[in-house]
């Protein structure tokens, strides 16, 4: 997918339940979440991410990783982040706690 012709990302407070588009966990009423919207190839789209996934996604993107919405888990698996060694390396590169990546991938910390 090409770069969006328009893009906006804000933190919102949930007025109803949503599903994170990355980890599929429920964003409950009252939780803050990352809401991103834009126009890709003339097609408007929007995405809701829990704050953990939103932070990982944003930091990967800013570090030059080419990650797409709804593909964060697969992208990290392709980077071999299920292995603790690589998870720690990637986490240090993007300045996030490796346990946040482990939670997203649903693997035990230390494994």
Keywords:
alpha+beta, 4 helices, single chain, three-stranded antiparallel β-sheet
Write a brief caption for the model:
The chain is an alpha+beta fold and 111 residues long.
Helix-strand layout with pairing:
Elements (H helix, E strand, L loop, with lengths): L5 E8 L4 E2 L6 E2 L4 E9 L2 E8 H12 L9 H7 L5 H11 L3 H8 L6
Antiparallel strand pairs: 1-4, 2-3, 4-5
What does this structure look like?
- By secondary structure, the chain is an alpha+beta fold.
- Helices cover about 35% and strands about 25% of the residues.
Q: How are the strands ordered across the major sheet?
A: 1-4-5
Examine the secondary-structure arrangement and name the CATH architecture: 2-Layer Sandwich
Runs in which pLDDT lies below 50 for 5 or more consecutive residues are none
Count of domains: 1
Strand percent estimate? 25-35%
Count of discrete alpha- or pi-helical segments spanning 4 or more residues: 4
């Amino acid at each position: 997918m090409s770069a969006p012709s328009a893009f906006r990302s804000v933190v919102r407070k949930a007025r109803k339940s949503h599903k994170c588009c990355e980890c599929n966990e429920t964003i409950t009423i009252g939780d803050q979440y990352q809401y991103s919207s834009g126009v890709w190839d003339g097609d408007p789209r929007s995405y809701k991410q829990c704050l953990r996934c939103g932070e990982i996604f944003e930091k990967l993107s800013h570090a030059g990783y080419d990650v797409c919405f709804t593909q964060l888990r697969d992208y990290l698996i392709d980077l071999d982040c299920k292995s603790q060694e690589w998870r720690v390396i990637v986490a240090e590169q993007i300045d996030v706690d490796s346990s946040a990546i482990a939670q997203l991938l649903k693997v035990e910390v230390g494994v």
